[in-house]
Amino acid sequence: MNRLLNLLLPVFLLGALAACDQQPSREQQILAKLPLQAAYEHNIGRMASLLAMDHPQVPEEQIKQVLRKHLTVEDQRNDLFKLYSTANFSDAEFETIVEATQNPEKAKALGDTEQGKRLSEKLTGLMRASAQDKAVQALAAQRMQQVEDDLQALP
Helix, strand, or coil here: 139? Predict the structure, then answer.
């Protein structure tokens, strides 16, 4: 038994060292490097402004609360995980997107390059494909109907 432990100990230590040396997953990178909460709040604000035109009797802050109830930050996170997955973007492409997100000057300069144009077209195409997906459309329609129902029920 002691001999077995002596043989397994180095294997476990190597495994532990290998685990420490692993790159963070793409999901971890998205959480760490992209301003998810700020983007979520920005989107909620834009939608609330639009809905305020159809519901002038409801304060915009209350509209935002209803939106947050049905359109969660977790939903947006999952959408971004899918969009920026390794299946869609290489590590280099993802790093370029992160840099452009964090630095408006780099984003502008990138937009003037062939690489930037290709990356922008790729991103736009993926977003369009997602928006045209019937399941995505059905889920979005369901959520927006829930938002409308809640807003209509308010005094």
Answer: helix
Please give the full DSSP string across 53-78, using - where no structure is assigned.
Answer: HH-TTS-HHHHHHHHHHHS-HHHHHH
pTM comes to: 0.75
Work out the angle at residue 35's Cα, subtended by the Cα atoms of residues 132 and 111, and round it to the nearest 5 degrees. Answer: 65
Helix 134-153 / helix 60-70 crossing angle, nearest 10 deg:
140
Torsion sign (Cα): 69, 70, 75, 76: negative
Calpha distance 154→54 (Å, rounded): 13
Note the pLDDT of residue 86.
95
Cα–Cα nearest to 116, from 100, 132, 135: 100
User: Residue 9's pLDDT band (boundaries 50, 70, 90)?
Assistant: very low
Query: CB of 75 within 8 A of CB of 55?
Result: no
- For residue 71, report the phi and psi dihedrals to the nearest 5 degrees: -125, 90
Cα–Cα distance, 67 to 80 (Å, whole number): 18
